[in-house]
Design a protein that fits this description.
CATH architecture of the largest domain in chain B: 3-Layer(aba) Sandwich
Strand order of the largest sheet of chain B: 6-7-8-3-9-10
Structural class of chain B: alpha/beta
Order of helices and strands of chain B: EEEHEEHEHHHEHEEE
Order of helices and strands of chain A: HHHEEHEEHEHEEEHEEHEHHHHH
Oligomer: heterodimer
CATH topology of the largest domain in chain B: Rossmann fold
Largest sheet of chain A: 9 strands, mixed
Helix content of chain A: 40-55%
Number of strands of chain B: 10
Structural class of chain A: alpha+beta
Largest sheet of chain B: 6 strands, mixed
Strand content of chain B: 25-35%
CATH class of the largest domain in chain B: Alpha Beta
């Protein structure tokens, strides 16, 4: 440590940057801007993907059965209900809950316009939600034609929550069947569904008569404590026919996210946005470092003439790039936090800072600055100490 | 020992039809501790000769021996190492604008091997005192006068303990009295260090500081006038 301190040199890179505060500020503003852009784009992307699984997360399940023909939450195919019952043969399986899952056309009771809503049908005696408050409300669904309405649904479905709270009897139609709102729940909207409703299996099947009776869309499986979900998945997949797919709960969430990531251009658009931020940042840092090197070329040449090594001078440029990266990242991170807060507040999208993204953007900024430093160095190699006489 | 020994050195710029010979068959010798002035009309090749001695260019033809190292056929790395032992003072002062006077001198002292930071800083301060700038150490080049800047440049060149000092028109940007002062200082300090000095100049007012004057014309050395 002492040797390091004794061996230290004049902090030339730092002085080159700091003695031109205006240029430094412009550079930092540019880098931060690029960082903020990346934080925003990646944050939106991840936030939107997270938003696509708001309902999936609510389930109290370890494993999930779906049909291999299901593409996403908006196109769930059915599979035979007995497959779910068959899983009970596995010693690690504690309980199962069949779930009907599908989009239905909801008539707005105010405007009489139809709009697709995500409906979940299940046995009201066997609610499978992680939130116990939610499970208590399902009692009212035992009567036919009753539903629970998601008050976080978009306003296009009508002022259901307001009417309900005012004590009015809220009734409307789904596929020609009269239904009554018997309570409010809070689930949240997602990509696929602008609104949600919960109902009993009987009501669900009445509302969608075209669905075969013995068929369900989602089978939830709860395992005994201490069992390894991954092992059970493999066992079940082997034992069950090909007409079902066994997923862990996380796998079910990933299945949905993957559809939006790869099946739509959303991921591409936001990744492209982040890439744009990266490129813009590169251009700015390169511009700053290149001008810096060009401006100081006679001075660098002087140092070379004095006998300083080229590698030492290249090190000066690299360090400049590094300092720029670090100093530009801090404001970008703070502004990112602020913007995430703002977006959460304004759109209720689950956008937030996480370690992976903080590191990704930090890494991108570092790469951006180092890349620019490397390019700017080419100018330095041109410095001919013989020219300064 | 001779600080500089040159034998039939020739140098040309350009290629083919554009080939222009700037130095022709130059031989000279500078002993350590000697102060030599090189004069001649502009364009006669003085600066080229200086850059060759300063190990800033590759030698094309002839033999050049500087501080016991052969420069003909020496690669980039070898020349860089020879340069560490040569102090250079440029026409423009060429100080680093972002460094204070003290830090500029320390960039020279930093070339000394095996010295701690504090020792190198003390070295820098010592040389600034020697050139009479103890009150200006914390100033940026921007805030110094022309004479002061050139004195910082001298301190920087000497801080690396060179055995040979090369100066290219050190008085060009200075008025007569200041230029004279600077060259006197240069000579005194070099003497104390037993350092050979080669000054390229066409300033007639400083010719008398030299032990010996070399005259050049059209790329050749003129015979010495006794």
């Amino acid at each position: 440590m002492r040797n390091l301190w004794q061996g230290r040199k004049i902090p030339l890179s730092w002085l080159l940057l700091s003695r031109q505060p205006v240029r430094l500020l412009v550079a930092l503003a540019g880098i931060s801007f690029a960082g903020i852009l990346m934080f925003m784009q990646l944050g939106f992307r991840d936030g939107l993907f997270d938003a696509s699984v708001t309902v999936h997360r609510l389930f109290d399940a370890d494993l999930v059965l779906i049909s291999p023909r299901s593409a996403s939450s908006i196109r769930m195919a059915g599979f035979p209900r007995r497959r779910l019952v068959q899983t009970l043969a596995d010693p690690d399986v504690e309980g199962v809950s069949p779930v009907h899952w599908g989009l239905m056309l909801w008539r707005n009771p105010e405007t009489r316009l139809n709009r697709a809503i995500l409906a979940l049908g299940f046995n009201p005696d066997d609610p499978f939600f992680l939130d116990p408050g939610l499970s208590q409300k399902t009692e009212v669904l035992k009567q036919k034609g009753r539903i629970l309405f998601d008050q976080l649904s978009r306003p296009e479905f009508g002022p259901i929550a307001d009417w309900y709270r005012e004590g009015r009897t809220v009734e409307t139609e789904i596929a020609g069947n009269r239904i009554r709102v018997e309570g409010l729940v809070s689930l949240g909207t997602s990509f696929g569904a602008d609104g949600n409703l919960l109902t009993s299996t009987e009501t669900f099947l009445d509302l969608s008569p075209q669905k075969p009776r013995g068929s369900i869309e989602v089978g939830l499986i709860r395992l005994r404590p201490g069992s390894d979900p991954q092992q059970v998945v493999e066992r079940l997949q082997l034992r069950l026919p090909d007409d079902v797919k066994v997923l862990t709960k996380q796998g079910f969430i990933e299945f949905e996210k993957n559809y939006w990531k790869s099946g739509t251009s959303i991921g591409f658009i936001f990744t492209l946005g982040a890439a744009m931020g990266f490129v813009v940042g590169c251009v700015i840092v390169y511009q700053v470092l290149y001008t810096d090197v060009s401006d100081h070329l006679p001075e660098y040449a002087t140092l070379m003439a004095m006998g300083h090594r080229l590698s030492h001078l290249l090190g000066v440029v690299v360090r400049e790039g590094f300092y720029l990266a670090v100093m530009g990242y801090v404001p970008a991170y703070l502004a990112g936090q602020g913007l995430y807060w703002f977006v959460r507040d304004a759109t209720s999208l689950p956008v937030g800072m996480n370690a992976t993204r903080a590191l990704t953007v930090g890494g991108m900024i570092l790469v951006m600055c180092m890349l620019s430093a490397l390019l700017a160095m080419r100018r330095l190699v041109d410095a001919d100490p013989a020219e300064i006489f | 020992m001779a600080a500089v020994e040159i034998d039939s050195l020739s140098h040309a710029f350009g290629q083919g039809d554009m080939l222009r010979t700037v130095l022709q068959n130059i031989s000279l010798r500078i002993d350590s501790g000697e102060v030599v002035l090189l004069t001649g009309p502009s364009g006669c090749g003085k600066t080229t000769l200086l850059t060759l001695i300063g190990a800033l260019r590759t030698v094309q033809q002839g033999r050049v021996n500087v501080l016991g190292e052969r420069l003909d056929g020496a690669g980039r790395r070898r020349r860089q190492q020879v340069r560490r032992r040569i102090g250079m003072i440029f026409q423009g002062h060429n100080l680093l604008r972002c460094l204070t006077a003290e830090q500029n001198v320390q960039m020279g002292a930093d070339l000394l091997p095996g010295l701690g930071y504090r020792a190198r800083r003390d070295e820098a301060r010592h040389w600034l005192r020697s050139v009479g700038l103890e009150d200006q150490m914390g100033k940026l080049p921007h805030d110094l006068s022309g004479g002061q800047k050139q004195r910082v440049a001298i301190a920087r060149a000497l801080a690396a303990h060179p055995q040979l000092l090369l100066a290219d028109e050190p008085t060009a940007a200075l008025d007569g009295a200041t230029g004279r002062e600077v060259v006197e200082l240069l000579r005194r300090l070099a003497r104390e260090q037993d350092c050979a000095v080669l000054i390229v100049t066409h300033d007639p007012r400083i010719l008398d500081v030299a032990d010996r004057i070399l005259r050049m014309e059209d790329g050749s050395l003129l015979p010495p006038v006794e």
